[in-house]
Amino acid sequence: MTEIVSAGGNASTSKGSAKRRLLKTAKKLFASTGKAAWIMSTTFLVLVVPLIIETDREQQLVELEQQQMGVLTATKPSS
After folding, report:
1. 3-state DSSP call for residue 75?
2. Which residue ranges traverse the bilayer (predicted)?
3. Model-wide pTM > 0.85
4. CB-based burial label for 22 (10 Å; 0-12, 13-18, 19+)
5. Is the confidence at residue 4, as pLDDT, over 60?
6. pLDDT band at 60 (very low <50, low <70, confident <90, very high)
7. CA distances from 57 to 8, 33, 38 (A)
8. Pick from 47, 45, 27: nearest CA to 35
9. Tens digit of each residue's pLDDT (9 = 90 or more) over 37-57
10. d(CA 56, CA 61)
11. Of the candidates 15, 21, 62, 64, which lies 20 to 30 Å from 30 by C-alpha distance?
12. 38 by DSSP, 3-state: which?
């Protein structure tokens, strides 16, 4: 009877250690995912956002030049 109890005790202990290992693995995964998200977001802010802003400025400059060329090349109506 002691063997059955000890075997049952080992089974519950192994289940408990399996749960602890699973929780530890989940915590590591969560921490890694958080680190990856932080790296991706800061990289986006440092590299991509200034590129978007500069592209927008360049587009506005091109539109302004096109408007100025349109005004300069417009024919004056003859009176």
Report:
1. coil
2. 29-53
3. no
4. exposed
5. no
6. very high
7. 72, 35, 28
8. 27
9. 999 999 999 999 999 999 999
10. 9
11. 15
12. helix
Tell me the one-letter amino acid at 22.
Answer: L
Pull the structure tokens for residue 18: 């399996």
Query: What token pair was written down for 31?
Result: 């921490």
From residue 66, alpha-carbon distances to 34, 56, 73, 79 in Å are: 46, 15, 10, 27
Residue 13's identity, in one-letter code, is T
Which amino acid type is present at position 29? Answer: L
Cα 75 to its chain centre, rounded Å, is: 52
Tokens of 52: 């978007």
